[in-house]
Amino acid sequence: GNVPPGVDPEAFSWFQAVDADHSGYISVKELKQALVNSNWSAFNDETCLLMINMFDKTRSGRIDVYGFSALLRFIHQWKNLFQQYDRDQSGSISFSELQQAFSQMGYNLSPQFSQLLLARYAQRSSNPSIQLDRFIQICMQLQSTTDAFREKDTGLVGNVRLSYEDFLTMVVTRMV
User: Fold this and answer.
1) pTM of this prediction?
2) How high is the pLDDT of residue 156?
3) From the centroid of its chain, how far is CA 153?
4) All domains of the chain in start order, with CATH
5) Could you tell me the CA-to-CA distances from 149 to 48, 90, 142, 169 in Å, in that order?
6) What is the mean pLDDT of the chain?
7) Which residues form the EF-hand domain (predicted)?
8) How many whole angstroms separate alpha carbon 12 and alpha carbon 88?
9) Structure confidence by residue, pLDDT tens digits, 55-98
10) Rounded to whole angstroms, how far apart are CA atoms 43 and 133?
11) Which residues partner with 130 through β-bridges?
């Protein structure tokens, strides 16, 4: 078919391959089948859903060719950032690389918090590390919750007083 205006021809070609049911849209399931980490593991459901929701302008749970093209640019940018922080070029981000990434992105997070993220998102092993999909997920969630916090921290002091329900509202409105 003809490439729609404003869509990268390579993205259009990949869209057609990924659109398994030929619906003209990409679902979370189709996206998951198309994306792999450096260790050939499929992207996790949560990250795929986050990304679909980000580019789903109609709130239908799927994206069209324009959304897919934008999503590919988004993934490419994250992959470049990921590779920049993957200093040993192992294809995954270790604890020390994660700490350095957070610091360079402007997050002042404790080693204990980074360890908590590794425990939550890394594959179980003697040397846990983060794959690209989880890196994207963590960074998107950090950005979203940071934005929510900053809305309440109008004086930029790093502390806020919240009711329990305000806290839950902040979290729920930014969840998948």
Assistant:
1) 0.86
2) 84
3) 25
4) 1-85 (1.10.238.10), 90-175 (1.10.238.10)
5) 25, 34, 10, 12
6) 91
7) 6-41, 73-108
8) 33
9) 998 989 999 999 999 999 999 999 999 999 999 999 999 999 99
10) 5
11) 93
Which residue type does 59 have?
R
State how far the alpha carbon of 56 is from the alpha carbons of 7, 11, 52, 74, 141, in Å: 16, 17, 6, 14, 17
Q: How many CB atoms lie within 10 A of CB 75?
A: 18
